[in-house]
Amino acid sequence: MTIELLDVRVTHQGRALVDVPQLSLEPGRAVTLVGESGSGKSLLAHALMGSLPSSLQVQGLVSFGGERTPLQDAAARRKLWGHQLALLPQEPVLALDPTMRVDRQVAEGHPGFLRGRRGRLAALKEAGNRLAGLGLHGVQGAYPHTLSGGMAQRVAFAAATIGGAEVLIADEPSKGLDPVARDALAQLLSRHVEQGGSLLTITHDLDLARALDGELLVMHQAGIVEQGPARQVLAAPTHPWTRRLLEAEPGRWDPAWRNPAPETGAAVPLIEARGLAKAFGGRTLFSDLDVSISPGERLALTGPSGCGKTTLGGILLRLVDPDAGEVNHHAELAGGRLQKLYQDPAVAFPARVPISAGLRDVVRRHNVSPERVPLLMDRLRLGHSLLDRRPGEVSGGELQRLATIRAMLLNPLVVFADEPTSRLDLLTQQETVNCLMEQVAEQDAALVLVTHDVGLAAAVADRHLSLEEAVPVASGRDAIAPQGSR
Amino acid sequence: MTILSTPSPPPSHPAETRRDHSLTRAAGKVLARRAAQAVGVTLAVTITCFVIVQNLPGDIAFRIAAGRYGYDKVDASTAAEVRADVNLDAPAWQQLGGWILDALRLDFGTSLVTGASVTDELALHLTATLQLAAVALVLSVAGGLLLGLLAAQNRGGAVDRLTDAWVSLVRALPPFILGLVLIIVFSVQLGWVPAAGHGERGNIVLPAITLAVGLSGLFARVTRDAVAQVLESGHVHFARTKGLARHVVLARHVIRNAGVTLVSYIGVQVLILVEGVVVVESLFAWPGLGHALVHAVFWRDIPAMQATVLALALIVVVVSTLVDLAVLALDPRTREAQ
Amino acid sequence: MNITQQANGKAPDMPAPSSPTTLWGMSGPVRRRLSWTRAASAGLLAVLVLFALIGPLVWRQYAGQDLSQFLRPPSFAEPFGNDHLGRSVIARLAHATRLSLGLALLCVTTAGIAGVALGLLAAWRRGWVDQLLLGISEIFLALPALLIVLIFAALASGEMWTIYLGIALAQWVEYFRVVRARSLSVFASPAVEAANLLRLGPVHVLRRHLCPELAPVLLTMASLGMATAVLAMSTLSYVGVGLKPPTAELGLLITESLPFYYEAPWMVAAPIVVLLLLLSGLLGLRTQEVRR
């Protein structure tokens, strides 16, 4: 069954948020919609689904195998939910009922589930089979909070598809997933297409788009600016905006701040850790690990989610105590020459006071020349009016740059950046990392970057330390595979 | 509600059995913590009451004697008898130890006013109070749930605004004034129900309504907020897109999740309920713990006061324990947090 | 879903001011309505405070009996008439309002200072100090406030200090629990971790992190606590274990005038209305619900 959307317009108080003349989904073909946050791509998916918030107005037509209904008639599409039209939600951890065992959540989408005791048993059996088919043995009776993000994503996939819907809409499905889990997801979605389903994926993750292949649509400012086979568009983009988007991928960066010749560690290390070990929740994160950070070097800590990257960072900063081993800081680091950037900068600022107040405290306390703040604001391409806002009122990318300014006021010798851009889209990530690295290069500070994005790590760091998946304590296996500099 | 009952689970899951252990462990911790609280409150109340008795004006022996034999028969000899009997000449710490041991054995001695055994009277008061509290709780929970559910279904609608107004109104309405108005209107003016007392038909109506009105407002507000929050949650949206009808989502997902908040809220409510019981029983002469407590305070009948305060406090502890256990059963996340 | 997510203000990178995201969800209209209620409550309270401050100066004679004025109906000089002992009702009301507000303020200040100080201490020192205070607070949590006040009333019935101490002792635990919990989460927050890495010192943490986090909750709790204190005091007098006549107190004014509600309804209505206005003014000030 082919689905066609015609003249879709989503508006809010007269402002167009989506304006797409035509979009069609065909069985056996993946359609992927990429674009930056706020380009309207999610709204387009929800317009098709019939799940837009009521404050938005939608116009246009949708045709299911030739039968046309107006898009405003969301109720008509709601009747198709589950058995013809299914949605794979973003952030699967939030999409699963925390108080219900997962097999029941999968089974309830089965058409027979509400038809008597026998139907329910059949549905539960089918749910168990589907979960097992996704490699989820033995978690049927588990509750969602015990699952990893990737496992929750697979449970959500089973729950969304058990109703037998041909059309699957995936809304930012790779959000918060590490590369391994993302590849597994791409395989699942491709399998749905191979089995004759149609797929519409909304994402800002170009790697996911690449893996799904199929048709690619690039969305920018409410409209579609380029479309065509994914391979072709990604290899030879024609629209300037698509080119910009592709150039924002870390693999293609060619920044001025790159270290021309990484030093060879002759200097006295600023941070030196020996024999570190840490276990958490019955799992060994790492053991007998040595780490040292020399002045001016750029180290990336990589590894899948939950492998203990952030914990290791906390230990190196001496914010968390290791189970074994010791961490030594060079005397020069005293007095705040060791600074940290956080994954969510909004929680790293005092929430209820204007940003300027926090920066003023830094300036006063450390006798920084007051002109440095406006100077840095200009250097990091930030409007001065941002200072009067509270952290919650500034976008994530801008706030991360403000956090960079705050850290730089103390002329740090080591900057520790914990997934600083994992919540940002590609363009914002590039801008944010550029700003950070320009400062790092200018001040000749050392950088420790924690990330699960291997591409970003490669673009930024000179040396890599990769942690493996955490292992249960009992096995006692050495979980560390330090890799040399590239 | 058959939808909520789940069929026997398919073959055993390793994950499931592990979780169930965590439930037992968490429940054990709750019980231990609440038991410590019960012992703590018993000790605190007993010691306080002992101190008060020690500092009462006049000779305590005379007061006890008056309670036992009547005011006209009190003289130095009966007082001396009492003194020997209750061991009043022993050092204070010995007497306190005796008090505590007695309290742990639920023996609160004899009333300083009526001379009757406090423990025996306590049973009667407790029954009357539980009767009143149960009726009030059922009325308020039923009314509050209904209002809150309706309000949450259509936020900003007529029912929602009405609930909002109701909540604000009853919150600022002291129970004793509400009771007063109800007595004047329904008992004195209309003569529909008796104003006060116990044992007649209809006695329970006014006090129960007085209690229920105050509670229902808060319960409606909490229900509304909890249900509205769950309705906005990602998992309810997802459940809808699975193709489940609105009422199925309500029964399978909304009620249980909102229930976690609502059940915890009952723990707060029991405090309000106990305070309400004290006021309302005095107002309507309902012979429960609250009425007895105010009497005891008025006559400085410390043994009776100690017993009633402890009974009310232990009701709070018991209800809180049940609430904690119910939350553990409803929300698996809390089991690990314990 | 994307949409609800954005409503929480967690959109990854939206240009904040121009985006329509803030209009999703309920936050907008609700906040407006609440602030309207708060303004009205603040106005109402201002009037009552003025009455409590100036009233007793204008109508000084609140205890003087004059049986020739028995149940005199309201007039221009005596807006609420005279009571069964010929005393000026408005003078007694003014004194009762002053007493209620004054004592409530005293109770809340005492309980608030003690609770905040102990809560900060527990969150700061942790360890056995925290455990001890937490244990004590658990005992108080099992005792509804009115029970604590009643126990104190038994100690020395009818005296002001028992009511003051009883109410204060019943309320400190709420401040303690809330301040302790919030301080613990503030101390553990990345924002404070960042402040420590920036070597900003305890004054910064107190001023920029802790105070802004605690102030709105504490103000809400204080207005709720005052309402509770006003209510507790009048309830105690009403059931006969609070202050004793001839004190001018709201609960007593209601009890004393009840036998005459048929002949002089204004006399019953006046203290009830003042009590209701006081309570709705104090309750309407709250900015958020507080759970302990």
Automatic annotation (TrEMBL), chain A:
Presence of the UniProt keyword Iron in the record: no
Subcellular location: Cell membrane
Topology in membrane: Peripheral membrane protein
PROSITE patterns: ABC_TRANSPORTER_1, ABC_TRANSPORTER_2
Cellular component GO terms held in the UniProt record: plasma membrane
One of the Pfam families matching this protein, by short name: ABC_tran
SUPFAM superfamilies linked: P-loop containing nucleoside triphosphate hydrolases
Main location: membrane
Stretches assigned to the ABC transporter domain: 3-246, 271-484
SMART domains: AAA
Keywords: ATP-binding, Cell membrane, Membrane, Nucleotide-binding, Transport
Recorded GO MF terms: ATP binding; ATP hydrolysis activity
Family: Belongs to the ABC transporter superfamily.
Name of the protein described by the UniProt record: Peptide/nickel transport system ATP-binding protein
Organism: Arthrobacter subterraneus
Automatic annotation (TrEMBL), chain B:
InterPro entries, A to Z: MetI-like, MetI-like_sf
Highest taxon, organism lineage: Bacteria
Occurrences of domain ABC transmembrane type-1 (ranges): 126-327
Positions of transmembrane segments: 35-53, 130-152, 173-192, 204-222, 262-286, 306-330
Gene Ontology MF terms: dipeptide transmembrane transporter activity
Xref: SUPFAM superfamilies: MetI-like
Subcellular location: Cell membrane
This protein's GO CC annotations: plasma membrane
Region annotation (Disordered) ranges: 1-21
Provenance organism: Arthrobacter subterraneus
Keyword check for Cell membrane: yes
Membrane topology label: Multi-pass membrane protein
Protein name in UniProt: Peptide/nickel transport system permease protein
Similarity annotation: Belongs to the binding-protein-dependent transport system permease family.
One Pfam assignment: BPD_transp_1
Automatic annotation (TrEMBL), chain C:
Gene3D superfamilies: MetI-like
GO terms, molecular function: dipeptide transmembrane transporter activity
PROSITE patterns according to UniProt: ABC_TM1
Pfam families: BPD_transp_1 (PF00528)
Predominant cellular place of this UniProt entry's protein: membrane
Membrane-spanning intervals of the chain: 39-59, 101-121, 133-155, 161-179, 217-240, 260-285
Region (Disordered): 1-23
Keyword vocabulary terms for this entry: Cell membrane, Membrane, Transmembrane, Transmembrane helix, Transport
Mode of membrane association: Multi-pass membrane protein
GO cellular component: plasma membrane
Keyword Magnesium: no
InterPro entries in alphabetical order: BP-dependent_transpt_permease (IPR050366), MetI-like (IPR000515), MetI-like_sf (IPR035906)
PANTHER family linked to this entry: D,D-DIPEPTIDE TRANSPORT SYSTEM PERMEASE PROTEIN DDPC-RELATED, OLIGOPEPTIDE TRANSPORT SYSTEM PERMEASE PROTEIN APPC
Name of the molecule in the record: Peptide/nickel transport system permease protein
Species for this entry: Arthrobacter subterraneus
